[in-house]
Each structure stands twice: as C-alpha cells, then as structure tokens.
Amino acid sequence: MSDYDDLAARIRALCAGETDEVALMATVACELHQSDARFDWTGFYRVVAPELLKIGPYQGGHGCLVIPFSRGVCGAAARLRAVQIVPDVEAFPGHIACSSSTRSEIVLPVFGAGGRLIGVLDIDSDRVDAFDQADADALAAILADVFGHL
C-alpha cells in the first residue's frame, strides 16, 4: 500500500504553481503509477464533449481511446460523479476490457473549481480486490489538492 502522505507531499511539490490540466495529469499519473505495485495501469480520461471521455496522460499499456459516460466503470464514475471501486471487473456489468490483465479497478471523478468535472482518474490492478475506501479517500484528497482550484 502506498504511503499516501508522502505521495501527496511529493505531488504537491511537483505540481506547485502549474495550471495546465494535461501537465498536471501527466505528473500525477507518473507519480501514482510508480508509487504502488498494485497499480498496473494509471491514467486519466478527460471530458472532451458532453457525456464523452477521451484518453489523457497515463502510465502502463494502451488504454481505451474513447469512453462514453454510458459505458464501463470510467463512464459510471463520470456519470454518477462518484468513486467506483470494483473488486472484480468480471462481476461489473458492462465493464470495458481495455486490458486483459485488469482484475480490479478504482475510478475517481476529477473536479475543478465549482465542481466542474474535468475527467476521471482510472487505476487498474492485475490483482482482485486491490482497492478499498482508504485508497479512495487518499486519492480523492490528492486530486482535490491538485485540480480543485482550476
């Protein structure tokens, strides 16, 4: 499990003063991905049109390029504006298999100022039941710190 306090401090220092969403996403994806062996794919999907996500900066193998809000775990996180913790992707109705190695995932909505939905952070693991509420809380705090003022 990550030391989220140390990770949050590193990310805060790296992102200080930056306002470009893509640059921030790239930095956060890199730091998160390298911080925890559970993280097999770590990246962002950006809101690019009403009800539509497109791949943003990520670490790991190829991701899906486009995800409508109506499909998959990422779509659910965007549509519901709520964290999705999926212990077993095989049991999630409508899961989009971007990678055959994914066994579980956590997806968090990314909000800017005023609750504007910027996108979602998607972290996949090759382990079943890799994520819990403590991960969700710590990751949400990091995202709010980095993106909440934009």
Automatic annotation (TrEMBL):
InterPro entries: GAF, GAF-like_dom_sf. Coiled coil: none annotated. It comes from the Bacteria. Residues 29-144 form the GAF domain. Pfam families: GAF_2. This is GAF domain-containing protein.
